[in-house]
Amino acid sequence: MRHLNKPAHYINEYARESIAFVLAGGRGTRLGSLTRVRAKPATPFGGKYRIIDFTMSNCINSGIRRVGVMTQYNALGLISHLQRTWGHLVSERGEFVSLLPAHLGTSNNWYTGTADAIYQNLTLLEHNSAEYVVILAGDHVYSMNYLPMIEAHAKSQSDVTIACIETPAKYADQFGVVQTNHEGTITQFVEKPKDPSPYVQEDGNVLASMGIYVFSRKALIEMLEEDHQNEHSSHDFGNDILPKALHTHKLSTFRFRDENGDIGYWRDVGTIEAYYDASMELVAPVPRLNLYDNQWPVWTYQEQLPPVKLTHDSEGQHASARDSLISAGSVFVGSRISRSLCCYNVRIDAGSEVHQSILLPNVHVGKNCVIHHAIIDEGCEIPDGIVIGEDAEDDSNRFSITENGVVLVTRETLENL
Fold first, then answer.
1. Of 144, 150, 210, 270, which is the most buried if we count CB atoms within 10 A?
2. Judgement on whether residues 317 and 196 belong to the same structural domain of the protein
3. What pLDDT, on a 0 to 100 scale, did the predictor assign at position 338?
4. Final residue belonging to a domain, choices 266, 281, 296
5. Tens digit of pLDDT for each residue in 203-222?
6. Annotated site (Could play a key role in the communication between the regulatory and the substrate sites), which positions (predicted)?
7. Do 55 and 62 meet the contact criterion of CB atoms below 8 Å apart?
8. Are 85 and 299 in contact (CB under 8 A)?
9. Are 253 and 165 in contact (CB under 8 A)?
10. 165: domain range?
11. Region 109-123: what's the mean pLDDT?
C-alpha cells in the first residue's frame, strides 16, 4: 500500500491553499511538576525531541509551511526552541512560523480558550490568502500527513472536518466524541461525556476527536465572530464552537489510518502515566511510532554533542545498555541500563542500575544507585547510593508517585531530601 505519510516534495494545491494554527499555550497541569517551569509542548520526548516537534514536523512534511504557533504559559523555552528549529524557512517564498504570544492578540489579554486564541490572531489569516485553516494541538505525539484530510474536506464541501480515532469507550470522558451518519457527516458532538453508552459503536469503541480540525476560511471566521459576541461562551472549540456549528454548518469526520489501513498511532501524553507509557513504547523492538522513517523525518533542534560513550570503571566493571534509546553526549561508566530512554547529556556513574526509566536531559546519576520505573526530570543530580522505585511507601514520602507506581523525581524534590 502507498505510504500515506510520504512527504510533499512539491507544494500541491491543497498545501498552497492551507495555513496551520498550532495551539501550544495550555498549562499542562496533569503532567504535574514536569510542566512547572516549561510549557507542555516543550517537554522532552523520545530522547532528542520536544513534544511540539511532532506536530510541527507533520506540517512541514505535509507541505504546509505557513504556521502560526500560539503560546501562553511558561513560553520562554518553547519560543527559544521554535526559533532555533524553524528558522530555516524561506520568507521570500511565503514560508513562515509565526510565534503568537497572548499579549499580541486583539484583546491584549490571556487567551481564554482555544477558539479565543484563534480569534485574537485572525489578522494572520487576513494577511495570508488561504482557503483551508488547519487547527492543531501542539501537545500530541503522532505522525500524520494532513493533505489527505484537507483533500477529503474540500471534496465533501464541508465547513469543518474533524480528525477522529477509534478509542475504547472507557476513555470517552477524556475526548470529544462524535456520531456520524453513513456518509461520515457528524450528527452529534459531545465534549468528554460522562456516560459514553449512546456513542459506543458495535466494536465497543467510540469515535474520538484528535483535536485536529480543518475549517473552510469563511466558515471559521463566521463562527469565531459569533462566538466572540457571546459573553456566556467559554470560547472553546470542543465546548462551544463545534456543538453549535452542528445546527448551522456541515461537519464531517476523517478517520485516521496508517499505511496498512489500521488505526493510526496517536498519543495524548497529557498525564504522567500517559507520558511514561508512550516513552516506554519507543524502546520496543518494533515501536509503532517509527522515529527512523526517512520518508517522514521528525525535525528538531539539537546541540552539537559528542557520541555516546560506554566505558569501564576503576575496578574494570564494564558499562552495558540493552533495549534502550540513548541520545548524544551521554556517558555510562561501569553502570547498567535496560529498557530505558536517556535524553542527551546523561551521565550514569559506576555501580548504578537504571531499568524501565526515563532520564531527561542533563541528568547525572551518582554511584551505586538503583532507579526503576521512574522519570528523572531535566538537570537532576541523583546522590550516590539512592534507591528509587523499589519501595512505594518510601518513594511516596520523598517524591511524586502515580497510581501505577511511576515515580517522578525533580530537582525540587531532591533538594527537600
1. 144
2. no
3. 97
4. 281
5. 889 999 999 999 999 999 99
6. 72, 110
7. no
8. yes
9. no
10. 13-281
11. 86
**Look-up of cell digits 555510562:** 332
For residue 296, the tally of other CB atoms under 10 A from its CB is: 19
Q: Are residues 128 and 19 in the same domain?
A: yes
Tell whether 183 is in a known binding site: no
The kind and range of the H/E element at 382 are strand 381-382
What distance in Å separates the CA atoms of residue 363 and residue 24, rounded to the nearest whole number? 26
Average pLDDT estimate for 152-168: 96
Cβ neighbours of residue 92 closer than 8 Å, sequence gap 6 or more: none
Asked if the model's pLDDT at residue 164 lies above 90, the reply is: yes
Q: How far apart are CA 154 and CA 173, in angstroms?
A: 31
Measured CA to CA, the distance from residue 131 to residue 345 in angstroms comes to 44
SS3 199: helix
Task: Work out how many domains the chain is built from and give that number.
Answer: 2
Annotated ligand binding at 171? The verdict is no
Question: Residue 9 — very low, low, confident or very high, per pLDDT cuts 50/70/90?
Answer: very low
Residue 162 identity (one-letter amino acid): I
Average of per-residue pLDDT values in the chain? 90
Domain annotation covers residue 18? yes
Same domain, 273 and 391: no
What is the Cα–Cα distance from 208 to 189, expressed in whole angstroms? 10
Higher pLDDT, 28 or 2: 28
Per-residue cell: 203: 466494536
Determine the pLDDT at residue 92. Answer: 67
- CB half-sphere exposure, 373, CA atoms < 13 A: 15
Pairing outcome for strands 309-311 and 331-333: parallel
Q: Do the beta carbons of residue 55 and residue 102 sit within 8 Å?
A: no
Residue 209 counted as an annotated binding residue: yes
Instruction: Please state the φ and ψ torsions of residue 392, each to the nearest 5 degrees.
Output: -60, -40
* Residues whose CB falls within 8 Å of the CB of residue 262, separated by 6 or more in sequence, listed in order: none
Whole-Å CA distances, 225 to 105, 117, 118, 191: 15, 12, 11, 22
- Grid cell in block for residue 185: 457527516
Residues 68-103 pLDDT 10s: 999 888 888 889 999 999 877 767 677 898 988 875
Whole-number percent of the chain with pLDDT over 90: 73
The DSSP line for 109-122 is S---SHHHHHHTTH
Please give the model's pTM, rounded to 2 decimal places: 0.92
